[in-house]
Structure formats: structure tokens, C-alpha cells
Amino acid sequence: MSALFDFNSFVVVVLLTICTCTYVKLIYPAALTVKTGFKGLFWKAARIGERLSPWVGAACLAMGVVTLFS
């Protein structure tokens, strides 16, 4: 089953995308400079990860617990 049809899997994919884009932007900032188009989605995900990092971290922790015990 695709991760886009199951809500829990969709949330995990979104959280992993946010975390990965934030990490890439911190390590190699020139990779995420485009703010429009398809690559702009990754820039926006990195921006969300930078500004809402405590909430994203809490969501990752919660989804990890849900994934382990479900």
C-alpha cells in the first residue's frame, strides 16, 4: 500500500521530508536556495523545520512511539 493512502504513513513521510530538508540545508545551504517551483517545496520544508523545530521534534518522537507500539 502506498504511503500516501494511509494517514499514519503520510504523516511519517512528511515529517521525514521536513527533517531531511532541514538537515541538508544546515549542512549544504546552497542546495536549497530555490524558493519557487518543485524545489521550492523542499525549501519550504526546511524553513518549517528551522522555525518549528521543537514541534517537529516532538511530532517525530510521537510518531516514533506510535510506529513502535502499533
UniProtKB/TrEMBL annotation:
Organism: Volvox carteri f. nagariensis
Topology in the lipid bilayer: Single-pass type I membrane protein
Pfam families, alphabetized: DUF1242
Keywords: Golgi apparatus, Membrane, Signal, Transmembrane, Transmembrane helix
Name of the protein this chain belongs to: Protein kish
An annotated GO cellular component: Golgi membrane
Transmembrane segments: 12-31, 52-69
Protein family: Belongs to the KISH family.
